[in-house]
Each structure stands twice: as C-alpha cells, then as structure tokens.
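SAMPLE LOG
Freezer: B-3
Tube label: C17
Construct: single chain, 407 aa
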Amino acid sequence: MLNVLELFGGCGGLGWGFKKEGFNIVAYNELDPKIAETYKANFKGTEYIVGDITDPTIKRQIYDCFKDLKCNIILGGPPCVAYSMSGHRNSRDPRGQLFRDYIATVEKLQPDLFVMENVPGICSIQHDKERLAGEAKNRANAFYKLEVKKIELEAAKKSMSVAKGKKHPKEQNTGLSEGKYDEEKDKELREAIVKIKKEIKKFDVSSFRISVDKKIINTFQSKGYRVVSKVLNSADYGVPQRRKRMIFIGVKQSSAMEITFPPATHHKNKLPKWKTVREAIDDLKDLPSQQETSHILTNHQASFIEKIKNTPIEKSVYNKYSEAFFRCHPDKPSGTVKENHGGVFVHYEKNRVMTPRELARLQSFPDDFVFKGTKSCILVQLGNAVPCGLSLALATHIKNIILRTSV
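STRUCTURE (predicted):
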C-alpha cells in the first residue's frame, strides 16, 4: 500500500480519488478547522493536522507522521487566490507563495511522486526571479509598487461601480462598499487606471520576472525532481462541469517512471459526450430541503424570485455579472463552480439558486460524501475543491504508471 500525505487538503476532493483507488492517506493538513471537519467525516484513519503550514510547529507535526513510514506520494493544491483570473492578482501576495511550503515538504520527505494542482492562471501571472540583485531588483521593486497601486485603484473603481448600480440583493454578500456614487471621482479613477497601465507597459519584465508555473518547475528540478504539467478540463473525465485545473506531476530524476496524463474519457462532440447539468442533478429538483444531505434550499425574497423568472438560460440574474447567479444550461456541463459569496448558479428550471448538494453533484462528489459546517462554509468548500471525477482519473492513471514501472 502506498502512503500519501495531502497538503492544503480542503474538504478532500483531490484525496477522494486516491482513497478510492486504495492509497493510504496517512496525514492531512488544512488551515481552516471548520473545513477540516468535513475531511474528518469522510477520511477515517488519517492523521489530521490543522493549522498554518508556514508555522514550523505544524511542519514538524507533518514530518513526524512519517518518522516510521515511507512517504510515497504528496498531494495538494496551494491556495490559488493570488493566481485566479477572476480577481486582482498580486505577484507578492503571501497566498501566492505557499507553493514554497509544498516544495519544502517534498524536499524534506522525498516522496517518489507528487501531484500539485492549481488554476490555469498560474501560467500567466509572473513572480520575481530568484536571487535578484542590483538594478534588476530595483526594477522589480518599482514594478511591484505600480502593480499594487493598480490593484488599489481597480478595487476603488469596482466599489464605485457598485455604488453607481443597483444595490446588491440580500442573497449576495460581495464585501464591497455601497457608498455614495461620485461621478467626478469615478472619472478620476478611470483616468488613473489608464495612466498606471501605460506606466506598467513600459517595463521589460523579462529581466526580473518569470511565470509562476516555470518558477515552480525550475525549483522542483533543483531539488532533484522531473516535472511535467498540463491543464486538464474536468468535463473530459465525466464531471458535469467545465472546470480547468493546472496539474503538476513530479517524480525523482532517478526514477524510471514515465509520467503522462490520463486520457480523456468524455468529449464535447464525440461519444461518450460530456455529462450535463440535467443528468447530474435533475432527480433533486423537487426534493424538500434536507439539512443532513446538504440539499439546503435558499429562502429567496419574492422580488428576487421574480428576477429569476425573467432570467433566460445562460444569463445572469444581474446583467453586470458573468458568473454569479448564472442560470445554467441544462444540457451542457456547468461553468466552474465557485462560492461567489452566495451568488451561486441558478437552477435551469426552478426559480432558485442551486443547493449545496446540487453543486456537489456538479463537482462529482458522491451522495454519501458528508459536508460539515454552515451552508456558507459548505459553499466555500465546494468552490475550492478538485472535482472527484478528475481526482479519480488522476489516481487511477498514476496507480497504473506505478504498477507498470514496478513490473
């Protein structure tokens, strides 16, 4: 039996496939104790280490789990907030540097293989190169100051746009200020953003920056690992959702394993075709609210229900949003499941948002997977999870690679 460590484990979407394939998940680490409760409910016999992996004490607890065991595989997805295409991306955001702690754990425990996942946006954002000095470091610092200023201006502009438009319904908590709209201030912000973007374009960033995915691969190589990476679409593996993830797989440079990625089992046009939203959740649409199964219906205000009634398929209840309160097409996979501060997908037939269990189905979690916590906490877990269908495809493929290599 192969021993596994799961880092940044969340509710267990990535680990689920490996558990299903018979891997022994020895230890798990997650920062949020509320989210860890879900993992504990579904992964019996695992050592749960809850806390900040940047804390040396937590790292030591993780390492101690393998004092008498060989760590064969490490799994994990360092938080992707700093790389997400849906938000402001700060190249020096500490949340975008947690891959270093993942790499440090790989270096310490020396697994035969690791799997790291993240959002595709990790390919387009750039970080400072290692060991910058002199003029290159000065240019990097100057660029970063402009980058931060742009983020601040864009956030202020977004808040101003909220103030200008209609107030958000109670169903959505955006966290944005709804202050008084100031037309002159709005114009100033637009002009300032245009100006700072022009300043940023003047920089030749190639002299001091490198894409994050290349930085990760280079660092792993310096630690003695061969690494391959690829963006996989979950819909290609029977998941009723078009959710793309960047997958890194690494093995020791001395290993004979030839690393490849699982072949697609489903296709947009060929048979078997992508699984659809209707196929995934239609049997749940008329069920009453059930707390124990996380099929928790939302009590909408009458005014919001009227808005939903007038929202066509593949449109949002609110014109200014492309994802929040989006009404899914029943005969296609959904878009990426996100927590969206409660602004989750709208049901294709019923005049309500989808329940956590319906969203879990879109994430291909089995119905016997238990979610712990409040409704909002479960939505966060689902929005951050790797679809179980994708994790199973990876686990099955990796298991076969290991078996072939050991023959």
